[in-house]
Every structure is written in structure tokens, then in C-alpha cells.
Write a structure and sequence with these properties.
Length: 312
């Protein structure tokens, strides 16, 4: 039994097989599932199969955790973090036996799960969705510090989307020397420091963006003034040197770096950005609305590339 988090009244731990009884019983209450869209387990055995097959702990280092009372080890429900692969977001969720509603347990557990996600997992943003009519869950989300984003449809039901951002992250404009601290070990590992330097790094127009976690620089990107003959715009910038330390990948840090850099450049009057993207990075840039504008070409040592561009 692996305990994950402890609060004043609760602890959160990974599911164990004995929890099958509670998951089956709790989900058999129509009021508990009223706003969720979930179906109840057909039997306690089905709940046991769910626990047996639950692989989020090993796959994503997070998941739904059993919510247990400190004093007497009573199973109250569950709370935790869920990674949604298609949307590439992490969401906090909670569910309790009806008899434990209104006692602040969900809020206490949600706050603890969010803190764990921010400090231990170093997540950039955590989301929550709540059925539009579920007033109690709206209060929990708000008390846990999440703010309203938009109305939307979730699993065919009207819902509200909330989010909270990690206060330990900050985006800053940096100089070239700072950028090398991440660019070198990520993009030119094992090579001399000179191998990661660009001729335009110290040009007055060059923009270096850095993402910090607390006081540590964890991601960088550089934009240099450089015209491509394929495009007509007088003022063009090339995106270069995108790098995020391994421990901070899959947290959408790269997306935030690029998007913020685009905003800064657009305020300068820039409307065209282009780059030479490694073949295995094209999906990342496509998510940010960059499009391929060349045939595949080979860069010595670094492999196949495509030129990509975006009008901002």
C-alpha cells in the first residue's frame, strides 16, 4: 500500500484490491454518479478488475488515489490527478460516498493533489471539468484555487472548465549565455560549448526566452531575425534552439515558450516565423499551427528535417 499524500485529516494512497468493495458500493449510488456520465460497476468483481488493470500509476506517475481518513483508515472516496492523452492535459478529480459530502474532504484532498502535482510532478497547469449543474463540485474547484476558463461540452454533457497554473514557473527574456545552459546539454550534448552557439545569438534583435522552475532554468527557445526567400514579409524571424530539460518534458513547457515568443515578436510588428524542424518534432509544431512548407531534407549529423512556417 503506497501512501502518496497526507493532510490534516486524510491521506491519499494507491488503490488496493480491498478497495473493490468500496468502488462498487460507492458507484452504485445514483446520486454519486448523477453528474459524472459514468456507469456503475456491474459487480464487485468488475471493480476488482478495474483496480487490477489500472496502470496510470506506472504510466504517468499519477492517478486516482483512495481517500482515507487518518484516524480510523475509513475509505471516504477517491481524489487524484488524471492524464488525458488526447487533450494532453492533467485534470484533478474527486468522488466520495454521499455520507461524507459537505465536510470539506473533497476540497482538502483536491488542494493536496494539486500541490503534489505542482511540487513533485512539476506540472505547468492542472484542469478540472464540472457538470454545469453540479453546484457542490463548482464550490470545491473554486475553494481549491481553480479559476473558470470557459463553458464547453464534456462527454456530451454541458460543463465548465477550470484551471490553475503552477506558481513555481516563470517565463522571462534571457541572454544568450543563459540559453546555452539548456541548449548545450539538450541539443549538443557531449560536444564543445561552441557547438551550441548561433552567429545571431548576440544580435540586438534576437529574442531568447527562458522558462524557470523556481530558480532553475528548464527550457529555452531563440528567435533570430532572418529572411527566407519563400516568403514576402520584410520582417521575418527564424525559430531556433528549442530545448527543454528531460525532467520537464511533456508538461507543455515548449508550447508556452513558443507562444510567448510569438506574442513578443508580434508586438514588434513581426508577422512571419519559420524554422527547420527535425522530422520527429513536426507534430509538436503542428499543434502550434505551424505548417510544413518544404520537402524533407537531410541535415548532416542531425538527420531528416522539414521547413515549417506560421503567420502570426
Amino acid at each position: 500500500m503506497k501512501k502518496i499524500i497526507k493532510t490534516d485529516r486524510l491521506y491519499l494512497r494507491e488503490f488496493v484490491m480491498d478497495d473493490a468493495f468500496h468502488l462498487y458500493k460507492m458507484n452504485s449510488d445514483p446520486e454519486v454518479l448523477h453528474y459524472t456520465g459514468d456507469e456503475p460497476f456491474r459487480s464487485e468483481e468488475a471493480a476488482a478488475h478495474f483496480i487490477q488493470d489500472y496502470d496510470f500509476y506506472t504510466k504517468h506517475n499519477m492517478g486516482r488515489w483512495a481517500m482515507i481518513h487518518n484516524e480510523d483508515d475509513t475509505f471516504l472516496g477517491w481524489c487524484g490527478l488524471k492524464y488525458h492523452k488526447e487533450e494532453r492535459i492533467v485534470e484533478v478529480g474527486y468522488r466520495l460516498y454521499q455520507k461524507y459530502w459537505g465536510k470539506g474532504y473533497a476540497t482538502e484532498a483536491a488542494k493536496a493533489a494539486i500541490k503534489y502535482g505542482f511540487e513533485k510532478l512539476r506540472l505547468k497547469v492542472i484542469y478540472a471539468h464540472v457538470h454545469v449543474a453540479n453546484k457542490a463540485s463548482h464550490r470545491v474547484a473554486q475553494k481549491a484555487g481553480l479559476s473558470f476558463v470557459k463553458d464547453f461540452v464534456y462527454d456530451g454533457k454541458p460543463a465548465k472548465l477550470y484551471h490553475i497554473t503552477n506558481p513555481h514557473y516563470s517565463l522571462k527574456e534571457i541572454d544568450a549565455q543563459e540559453a546555452y545552459k539548456v541548449r548545450h546539454p539538450v541539443l549538443r550534448k557531449g560536444k564543445p560549448i561552441e557547438a551550441c552557439k548561433f552567429d545571431e545569438d548576440r544580435d540586438i534583435s534576437t529574442l531568447h526566452m527562458g522558462m524557470y522552475f523556481k530558480n532553475d532554468l528548464v527550457g529555452v527557445v531563440t528567435f533570430t531575425e532572418n529572411s527566407h526567400p519563400l516568403f514576402k514579409e520584410t520582417l521575418q524571424f527564424q525559430l531556433r534552439g528549442m530545448a527543454v530539460l528531460e525532467a520537464y518534458r511533456n508538461k507543455r513547457i515548449g508550447e508556452h515558450l513558443v507562444s510567448h515568443g510569438e506574442t513578443v515578436l508580434n508586438k514588434r510588428g513581426v508577422t512571419r516565423i519559420w524554422l527547420n524542424a527535425r522530422k520527429n518534432a513536426t507534430a509538436f509544431y503542428k499543434r502550434l499551427d505551424y505548417v510544413i512548407c518544404s520537402k524533407e531534407f537531410e541535415v548532416p549529423i542531425f538527420g531528416p528535417h522539414f521547413q515549417m512556417t506560421k503567420k502570426i
